[in-house]
Write a structure and sequence with these properties.
There is one protein chain. The protein is α+β, with helices and mostly antiparallel strands. The protein contains ten helices and 16 strands. Strands 1, 2, 3, 4, 7, 8, 9, 10, 13, 14, 15 and 16 form a twelve-stranded mixed beta sheet that branches. α2 packs across α8. It is globular.
Amino acid sequence: MKPQFKNLIITLAAGVSLAGNLRAAQINLVTVGGNATIKLVQDRIPHILTGSALTVNSTNSLIFRYTGTLGGKTVQWDWNLTGGAGAILDIANQHPVTLADNTSSIPVHATTITAPETVNIDPSAFTQDITLVSPVVFVKNAGPNNDLASITNLTQRQAALLESSGGTLPTAFFGGSTNSNNIPANALYFVGRNSSAAVRQVADANIYATGAINYTTNNSGQPILYLDGLGNPSGAGSGSEVVNIVKAIPNSIGTVAAQDIGTLPTLSYEGVPYSTSNIINGTYPVWGYERYIYYTPGTSALAPSNDQLSLIQALEAAVEDPTFQTTSSLFINKFVSYGAVNSNVQRNIHVDGGPITSAIY
């Protein structure tokens, strides 16, 4: 062999080896989920990625990408947090999702407060790491021009009735005011999440509701059906969207994750006001476990790689960090440490809205 060709072969081989090393140093991960904990995620990721940079999708802020490095390896971590219930289906059915740059890819990992069985997915193939407890809260329009001032509590039957009523029930049915002739004339509107949302599934499971018709407003501020892209009754795509709709409709009540309450008044459920202490003592039941879900490594080719698992576990550790959970305003009074409730109240992790007991499942 001529020396120049031998050198060329050696050079090409070195180039191939270098390219392989570069690919090995790249960690790509696609995560889907609900947005009940989006503020926690976006706070914690910069703490685990060196030189982290955030890119947000041009049309949907729930779709974003973080880049940076972890352990000397370059990371591209894509997130699509448009629905926690839908996320489980995306993982199970290997459904491609939209990324920050409007390309698409199949997700490997999901974050959600919905149990797989809620969306008819067998959980046996998955690992479920519980990171925290995420409360769901009823909020109402703050007024003052509404009939809700005297409505401070919802019973289970009232909550289920409101969610399935189509927004036509009078406020007086829920303890609100009547008109001058003592006739309950004004309707009370429910503002809920769409069926792909984990918050919607958790709320429905806890109040024993089987469905909902949700409302938004048109340009004149009048209630109209909230329809999905196919013209079917749907619901809001995020907690912040629910908040904006509730603020726009005077006689309205909505459901949100606790991180989205903001300045809206909250309602008690079955006489128990929302508070993290009432979750810890087992009296406030409307909550779900935040799960990090992925195919169990070693049992499926769809499971995360070792590098991908290192990213997932790094984020879990950052979210569960005791200093963060006890000092950050993003966590305090909005979420509950799993350790705080673990010795006091328990639910079967496979069932949304199941009985609260002291048993360990």
